[in-house]
Each structure stands twice: as C-alpha cells, then as structure tokens.
Amino acid sequence: MGLFNWFTQEVAIDLGTANTLIIHNDKVVVDEPSIVAFDRTTNKVIAIGRQAMQMEGKTHANIHTVRPLKDGVIADFNAAEHMIRGMIKKINNGKGWFFPSLRMVICIPSGITEVEKRAVRDSAEIAGAKEVYLIHEPMAAAVGIGIDVDEPMGNMIIDIGGGTTEIAVIALSGIVCDQSIRVAGDNFDSDIINYIRRQHNIMIGERTAEKIKIEVGSALPELQDPPEDFAVQGRDLMTGVPKQITVSYTEIAHCLDKSISKIEEGILKALEITPPELSADIYQTGIYLTGGGALLRGLDKRIHAKTKLPVHIAEDPLRAVVRGTGISLKNIGKFKFLMQ
Ligand SMILES: Nc1ncnc2c1ncn2[C@@H]1O[C@H](COP(=O)(O)OP(=O)(O)OP(=O)(O)O)[C@@H](O)[C@H]1O
Ligand SMILES: [Mg+2]
C-alpha cells in the first residue's frame, strides 16, 4: 500500500429513501433509517438515523424530522448533506476521523435525471468527499448478489426499496433495458394507512403502517404459511380516543393489490422491451428480487404466477445494493459502469 493510498479512505454508500448503509473496509459499518431530526429554532441537527426515527411522528413544536430522500432521489438537499455527514461520523463509533482524501461510491436509481444526479454528487462533496463515483442501483444489486455482470448473459434484477422499484435487465456490464417506477415500500405503507382509515375508522401513523406490513403484509390473499392476526392501536376517528383492532394478512393483501399490480405492469413492460436473445437467457436465469420489498410475503410467488419465470429472493435483500457498491469500490479500475 503506497503512502497515497494510506491517506485515502474509501466508503461505499447506499443512500436509500428508507435506509442508508455504508461499507468501509469490507464491513457494513452503518445501517440506519434515512432520517434527520432538526431543532426548529436553531436549525441544528439533534439526531440522525435510528435515534431520529424514534422521534418521528412524536415530535413537538420545536423538533421536526425530515426524510431527505423521496422516491429514491434527494428531495431536501440541506438535510441530505447533514445526513451523509452524520452517517460518516458514525463510522468508527463517532470517535472522529481525519480524511485527507475521501473516496465515495454512491448508488443512484437508474431513472434519475441529470439534476438529481448533480444533487447526489454535490451533497457528497459538501459532506467531505474528494472523489465521487456513482453507480446505478440495479447494477450494484446484481454485483451484490454475486451475478457475473461482465458475461454476455442476461439477468433481470428487481430492487423494491422504500421509494422506487427498479427493474433492469443487465448484460455485458450494462443496463440493457430498465423501468424505474415510483411505487415501492412507502406506497404499501400509505395503502395500509388509507385502508385502516376507510375500513376500521382508525387513524394510524406511518411507523405503525410499516409494522403492519412487516408483521402481516402479504402479496397474496392465501398463503401456505400464514402469519397470525396482528393487533393495531390507533386513534378512533369517531370518538378521538385510542382504540385497538386486529388485522389479518388477507385484508392487507387486498389493500396492497393495486400497488403490487403496478409493479407487475412494470415487470411485464421491461420483459416486453427486452431483446429476444436476452429474453431467452432470462427464461433460464429468472428474476432476482432485492431491496426490503423482496421480503413481502408471497411476492415471489405472485411474480412467478404472473411471468411464469423462476423468481429468486436475494440473500439478505436489504444489503444487496450496498454489498455490490462496496465490491465496485474495490474494483474502480475494472468496472466500466462506475460513473465519475
Ligand atoms: N419484512 C418486510 N416485509 C415487507 N417490507 C419490508 C420488510 N422489511 C423491510 N421492508 C420495507 O423495505 C423498504 C426499505 O427497503 P430498502 O432499504 O431496500 O429501501 P431503500 O434502499 O432505502 O429505498 P430506495 O432504494 O427506494 O431508495 C421499506 O419500505 C420497508 O418498510
Ligand atoms: Mg435501495
């Protein structure tokens, strides 16, 4: 290792709508929700990540929580910069770091505009990066699940995150065709909020909705291994008093149906525009699911029923993208798909 390298610190960041993950020295050193809490009067950051998430929906007039990303892209530039800076400080348990030269690889959705790309690059630079590389999320996901992306072989990756679902066919180190749709985990949560309000006359918050999705969420109204009904507390819209109800996975499957259909439409569209030689490959290799949405019960079976293709859920789907980003960081010279 040369003297120059010794001074260069390298980090790989998956800056997600729901979660931010950082890999440093081959290890996931940060895995926290993408949230920042600010003091309204001083505009100072009070907390970021998990600590800020605990405050979400429970703040008083002096605190407000912000999710800097929306639909996979930076929506609040100032908050994003604070978040990246704060997350990097968490490496080394906040003991402080001196970065003479910080190299960053950050992943971005494939459907991102030039302006949105600029925002990611600028936030990284303001947060201290001297050298920034960008990588498209589906490419990172493919590398992360161990697909040999250089091969002349087509693979379909679907990354279902909080803000976006990225559907891409990858071959020869490039994205051949893709669909980026802004329907993902966050929409599932709002579907659940609306459903509980309409059907049960109860108002619930986003965190409760996410909990329902994780505990009893389902993409199919009938499951072989069904979860038990789940008790939910919220505010009764008629009386204003807290109330408890129970919800079943079948109800949630019905309320998520429309959003999942939109994802299915995107998959069919991507398959339709895939060149025939790659279609033939995908018939063999199937579809790989990554991102937190891949954990929704029955989603793999539902996509299989729709496409008749083999569907694989990636191992540790929430970390596939950051793993791939980390591997790309180590192969900066080799991987042509890294953008500077
Ligand atoms: N067991 C589960 N079942 C269903 N959904 C889940 C589960 N676990 C996590 N999720 C959802 O996955 C989403 C987060 O996934 P992920 O971390 O891949 O998103 P992200 O990378 O932050 O977002 P994006 O890629 O869109 O910017 C959230 O909406 C979360 O609620
Ligand atoms: Mg993601």
Automatic annotation (TrEMBL):
Entry's NCBIfam families? mreB, PRK13927.1
The residues that hold ATP are 17-19, 162-164, 210-213, 292-295
Please state which protein family the record places this protein in: Belongs to the FtsA/MreB family.
Primary localisation category: cytoplasm
What do the Gene Ontology cellular component annotations say?
Answer: cytoplasm
Location in the cell reads: Cytoplasm
* Function recorded in the entry: Forms membrane-associated dynamic filaments that are essential for cell shape determination. Acts by regulating cell wall synthesis and cell elongation, and thus cell shape. A feedback loop between cell geometry and MreB localization may maintain elongated cell shape by targeting cell wall growth to regions of negative cell wall curvature.
Its quaternary organisation is: Forms polymers.
Protein name (record): Cell shape-determining protein MreB
